[in-house]
Design goal:
Strand order of the largest sheet: 6-7-8-3-9-10
Distance between the termini: 47 Å
Radius of gyration: 35 Å
CATH architecture of the largest domain: Up-down Bundle
Number of domains: 2
CATH superfamily of the largest domain: ABC transporter type 1, transmembrane domain
Number of helices: 18
Structural class: alpha/beta
CATH class of the largest domain: Mainly Alpha
Helix content: 55-70%
Order of helices and strands: HHHHHHHHHHEEEHEEHEHHHEHEEEHHEE
Length: 590
């Protein structure tokens, strides 16, 4: 779950803020709303016709009148059923389209949100919003809203007719209904709070399940299966207990609303019988009263369910709007570089994570000329990966500027910037698609020759040995491949995009010594004419670079060639000593 923050300014209810999605379908909803009173009218007309047939044709022995009234009742029922069928058909189609549109927009927003947001939120919470919460909203829009409206109209109309027919009995029914409505509202308010807790707990369980299943190899290797189960058990039990609390509350509500119509019926029958005995009501009016009461038995009984459903939909919409309300901090600029060269400059760069008390980078100055390769070297936590993340704007600087060809990256068109900068990460992410689709992710129009060249440079020709070659589906996160294979595919993907700036964030760390040497040899030709930024955790990677920049505690302390730093900077020699054997005369061997 995200950390608790100070309350945001008061906004309109989340459900109302989703109303613009109904705009393109307003004609359908207008038609359904216009038909709703007609359906209510048909439902009310049947009891009135029953009362009239009792006092009229049946009392007079008029068989033809009885048949005519029966046909009218059948027609009213048919119209009511036809309206219901049309309503369901129209709303099912439109609300499914609205759900899909909101889901598209929500996914698009998630892709736009900064990396800091995704670090703060658990993926299970996001998945529960984009799937279960939107599904709940669709179901509420498809029948919940309209049923709540129709049932409310029907209750009001029937009570109005009752008061008109026999005001003493009508007012009695109204007096009995009001406290039930108040009690229902109080129970529904509590149910809404529980619904939000259940939905949040569902997201927690989904996050824990996803995390455990993705890390199942680690869990098993450390013999922590029982520990993982215990963690899941705690979250699942919490979800169960919240669900039970909600159902207990719903049980009280439903019992109240199911019992009430029966008790009300006894009262109405007693009072109506007295009215008929005194001549205040005819027998037909008594029949109308009883059937009218029966016609609102379901609307009254379903009122609690529908209000509870509305509360759940309100909670779901609030959870969805939490994502839409998140600010998009990395916004595309409008400038474009007509003839990009790939010169990169870091000018007084400072950066601090939102949840950090100290800056990760402080006053970083570095110029990387077109076609030059610079290695970033430093201890763990010195800020190397942060520096390379600033170039394609995975993060934005909090001070200073990053420039490509003299233009601040914040002013550049984001799509062009990211087409100019190719990145291969230390922890490569591959998607559950074919090897070809993974490789051409950044360049869908790549030719087979270009694809083969990228595979050759990255020494990733092993893909041809997969069961279906490049068309082999790699599975979730590419876990069917070894770590080195995933890194080589990620490197080939970055090379294939044809960038002007190639960023390698310790991309060769999972390769064996021989494969690493082959990849490095092939990369030397690839980096000619391309600006390279290489994060070097392993000393051998440094040899790819023309110059080396050494970071210490977020600052660049030394810049020079490998030989210069090796000769003049003891900290640099110490940093490389784990992988290199330093020879007399400043030579190095593996």
């Amino acid at each position: 779950m995200p950390p608790v923050e100070s309350p945001a300014p008061r906004r309109r209810p989340a459900l109302l803020r989703l109303l613009p999605y109904l705009g393109p379908h307003w004609r359908t909803f207008a038609l359904v709303l216009l038909l709703a009173p007609v359906g209510v009218g048909m439902a009310v007309l049947i009891p009135m016709l029953l009362g009239q047939v009792v006092d009229g044709p049946i009392a007079r022995g008029d068989v033809r009148g009885v048949v005519v009234t029966a046909v009218l009742i059948l027609l009213a029922g048919a119209v009511d059923s036809g309206i219901n069928m049309l309503r369901r058909w129209l709303l099912s189609d439109r609300t499914s389209r609205i759900e899909a549109t909101i889901r598209f927009d929500l996914f698009d927003k998630l892709l736009e949100l900064p990396i800091a947001f995704h670090k703060r939120w658990e993926s299970g919470q996001l998945l529960s919003r984009i799937m279960s919460d939107l599904g709940l909203l669709r179901r509420f829009m498809s029948f919940g809203v309209l049923m709540l409206l129709m049932n409310s109209i029907q209750i009001v109309v029937v009570l109005g007719i009752m008061v008109t027919m026999y005001w003493q009995l009508g007012l009695l029914v109204l007096a009995l209904i009001v406290p039930v409505v108040v009690a229902t509202w109080m129970l529904v308010t509590r149910s809404t709070t529980l619904s939000r807790q259940v939905q949040d707990a569902t997201g927690d369980v989904a996050s824990l399940a996803e995390e455990s299943l993705q890390g199942v190899r680690v869990i098993r290797s450390f013999g922590r299966a029982r520990h993982a189960f215990a963690q899941f058990d705690r979250q699942a039990v919490r979800l169960r207990d919240l669900g039970v609390q909600r159902m207990n509350l719903a049980s009280i509500l439903w019992t109240l609303l199911e019992t009430f119509p029966t008790a009300l019926m006894l009262v109405v029958l007693g009072v109506a019988a007295h009215g008929a005995a005194t001549g205040a009501l005819t027998l037909g009016q008594v029949v109308s009263f009883v059937t009218l009461l029966l016609s609102i038995a379901w609307p009254v009984a379903s009122l609690g369910f529908l209000l509870s459903f509305a509360g759940e939909a309100a909670a779901a919409s609030a959870r969805v709007m939490e994502i839409f309300d998140e600010p998009v901090t990395i916004v595309s600029g409008s400038r474009r570089i007509e003839q990009p060269r790939g010169r990169v400059e870091l000018r007084g760069v400072e950066f601090r994570f939102d949840d950090a008390t100290e800056a990760t980078l402080r006053g970083v100055d570095l110029v990387i000329e077109q076609g030059e390769t610079v290695a970033l070297v430093g201890g763990t936590g010195s800020g190397k990966s942060t520096v390379v993340a600033l170039v394609p704007r995975l993060f934005d600087v909090t001070g200073g500027a990053v420039l490509v060809d003299g233009v601040d990256v914040r002013e550049l068109d984001l799509s062009q910037l990211r087409s100019l900068v190719g990145v291969a990460f230390e922890d490569p992410i591959l998607f559950s698609m074919s090897a070809r689709e993974n490789l051409t992710l950044g360049r869908p129009d790549a030719t087979d020759e270009e694809l083969e060249e990228a595979l050759r440079v990255a020494r990733a020709e092993f893909v041809h040995d997969l069961p279906w070659g490049l068309d082999t589906r790699l599975g979730e996160q590419g876990l069917s491949l070894s770590g080195g294979q995933r890194q080589r595919l990620a490197l080939a993907r970055a090379i294939l995009s044809g960038p002007k700036v190639l960023v390698l964030d310790d991309t060769l760390s999972a390769l064996d010594i021989h494969t690493e040497a082959e990849v490095e040899e092939a990369l030397k030709s690839t980096l000619v004419g391309v600006t390279g930024i290489v994060v070097a955790h392993r000393a051998s990677t440094v040899l790819l670079a023309d110059r080396v920049a050494m970071l210490v505690d977020g600052r660049i302390t030394h810049v020079g060639t490998h030989a210069e730093l090796l000769a003049t900077v003891p900290e640099y020699r110490e940093l490389l000593s784990a992988d290199f054997q330093i020879e007399p005369g400043l030579g190095v061997t593996r």
